[in-house]
Amino acid sequence: MSGFDIKDPKLAEGGRLRIEWAEREMPVLRSIRERFAKERPLSGVRISACLHVTTETANLMRTLQAGGADVVLTASNPLSTQDDVAAALVNVFEIPTFAIKGEDNVTYYKHLRAALDHQPHLTMDDGADLVSTLHKERRDLLSNVLGGTEETTTGVIRLRAMAADGALAFPIIAVNDALTKHLFDNRYGTGQSTIDGIVRATNVLLAGKVFVVAGYGWCGRGLASRARGMGSNVIVTEVDPLKALEAVMDGYRVMPMTEAAKIGDIFCTVTGDINVIDRHHFELMKDGAIVANSGHFNVEINIPALEELSQGKRLVRPFVEEYTLKDGRRIYLLGEGRLINLASAEGHPASVMDMSFANQALSVEYMLKHHAELEKKVYSVPEVIDQEIARLKLESMGIEIDTLTPEQVQYLNSWEEGT
């Protein structure tokens, strides 16, 4: 095994137990790992992965390893690493890992470069930082890279921009586009885990609070639903008229952030864009407002503007910074504006990541087989993979569904019969 950089090797046993606990809720990935162990479809392939270092990710790494891959893992967010999991990956499963919870920006990029030193044939990214660094700093490695995968909405947006500019040097499969990923991971996973992170950080009662959700994509839908389920009065802010209309039809109040800022108790951004909560919004917020982010990067909240508006700040609870504005109002920023579901909680439940990481494993296998025929652009997960993952998930839950009869197939493929 090559080098690694983790917080404390002595945490490995606790990490192993939690990885095993998560595995119980990941039957689809487990079935893929069993097949991979027999067929070894990834033998001799070097994979550099930049993902949140969690128990679920550990089980993905084990699956790739079982398939014969030589894997190196680095964190995709400075606050999302679970240090006991990183220790177990290194000491129990012998997977080189570069990740320490709370690492600074310099260390974060040092770890990205360490993962690239692996000279990957395939990349696996969560936010496109690894691919971006590869293209900017290590172009000497590009000729070795066959392709990659991307997990997040934010990363897919960045990579499609690269492809549009002609800058992308190899094909990428957008795992986030898979229906078995964004319909479930983004909606149910983000919804539950973001509420979990906010509550763990603050211990506030959500019932009766005005909860502002910025963005009504699949993550926003899930978060709004769970906040309402906890008794919050939910407001949605949007820039897309179709999504805004959908939020209205789903029973939420919809208004601009400038209006929501005046009445919100808790704010959470899930858009993937920059400065969604900006200086003029902070100037309108009431004393005690809580601000969090569950989009991939902390740029969704204009933290420099909040710093400029404040006369001081202090850490009042783990992951809760109190900013005192010059007029005396206090605004509470959670998790340094980073993904709150991973900063103060454990990220998505394993059962939903089971499908997301099954997509990762099967997409890597697909990329290895088909990279030569793919252009240097971003592709959606093939429908056959999506369907197979859904089938395996239902099977693991003991649920059976109907199948079309030959007569029904013929009817759906014909045009002659009408009224």
TrEMBL record:
Pfam families: AdoHcyase (PF05221), AdoHcyase_NAD (PF00670). Its EC number is 3.13.2.1. One of its GO terms (biological process) is L-homocysteine biosynthetic process. Its main location: cytoplasm. Substrate binds at T54, D126, E151, K181, D185. It is found in: Cytoplasm. It comes from the Bacteria. Keywords: Cytoplasm, Hydrolase, NAD, One-carbon metabolism. NAD(+) binds at residues 152-154, 186, 215-222, 238, 294-296, 341, 348. Residues 186-347 form the S-adenosyl-L-homocysteine hydrolase NAD binding domain. GO terms for molecular function: adenosylhomocysteinase activity. It catalyses: S-adenosyl-L-homocysteine + H2O = L-homocysteine + adenosine. This is Adenosylhomocysteinase. It comes from Anaerolinea thermophila (strain DSM 14523 / JCM 11388 / NBRC 100420 / UNI-1).
